[in-house]
Structure formats: structure tokens, C-alpha cells
Amino acid sequence: MKPRILVVEDEPSILDNIVYSLQTEGFEPQGCGTAGDARAALERGSFALVVLDIGLPDLPGFELCKEIRKASNIPIIFLTARAAEVDRIVGLEIGGDDYMVKPFSPRELSARVKAVLRRIQQPPQESAAEGAGPFRVDEERAQIAFDGKRLALSSTEYRLLRALCQRPGRVFSRGQLMEIAWDDPGAALERTVDAHVKSLRAKLKEVRADADPIETHRGFGYSLRELP
Q: Residue 51's CB: how many other CB atoms inside 10 A?
């Protein structure tokens, strides 16, 4: 079956171009122009990924992303006319998987969609679940549990935390983590790693408020503490 992609964009010409490009690349896109229409579409059926404009007329895309993240870890690619780095960081912190600034090539967006979907469709490893202290990594389902509770992670957060869990105590540089979590590390910024780690820490504290398993090594990167 063709992967279904939900495209939420209020500019009709941009929406039409994105939908056409995704169709020619073998996807089944569905377009809508408001957050309300997007909610209805998500309630009616399942999608492999959401392309989400930040500047929607009825609700900011960031707010819609937060709503989606409460119920699902579906990949989200943000679209925006604002190029400020702070907007990109905010989008990643609240659970976005990628970020594109207008104007952009619809073909480039299609390539980004493919890259994100490849990251969440990794072939399963021989061991379906591995432990690292209070963590359980389920490769087959692309899920990680902490203290017995499954974490709602974006695909990038999953890949970052999985790498840390696989080598507790090892210090990973930001560059190494970018190589692990992004198909095109050159398109990412080192601060995006920090943003994802900040989001991971918040999700871990929701499960266990006294835990801070990810250790920062200033000027270098991060490691996973070995917790009891």
C-alpha cells in the first residue's frame, strides 16, 4: 500500500504543488487547509507522516503538533516562512522530526519525507528487546520503555536515545549523534541535537521525576548514566 501523507497547508497553490509532488513519488497524500480539517482527517484514518505548516489560520501549527503528540508519535515535518533558528529549535523541541523553510522545492520535501520514513522503518535486530538499566529498547516496534512505561518518541528522539542506551557510559559527540539520527547530517545543526535531548529529558522526568539519566559533557556531547 502507498504510504498516506497528511499535508496541512493553507496556501492553495503550495498545497497543490506538494500534493502533486508526493503523488508522483508514490505516496497517497491528503491535503487540508486548517487545523480543524487536519484533526478530522486524523480521527478518520491513519497516516504515515504529517507535513504541517506553522502559520495556519485557525491554530498555530506548533499548537496542533502538541495536540498530535499527546496521542501519537507520527512523524511531523514543519513548513514555515520564518527562517529564524529559534523557530526551528522550538519545532524540534515539541516533537517535530524535520523543518523546511519556504520557499522550497516540492521534490526536496518529497526527499525529506522519504528520509524520515526510512528512519522509522529500520529492519529489526536479532534481539527484539534489550535492557540498559531502567530502559528497554524494542527494535522491532521502534519503541523504548523507561521504568516500564513506553515513551512517546519522535523518530529522531528514538534513534538518539537508542544509541545512548546501546552504549551506557560512552560519551557521544553531537556530530556522532547527528550521524546516527539524521540521514543527511549536514542539513542539521548541532543545536538541534541539544533540542532533542532537552525534549527527551522532559519525557523521562514525566515518568520518573528524580531521574536525569542523560549526562551533558560540556563542549563535547552526551552520555547515558548507568542507573540502578
A: 27
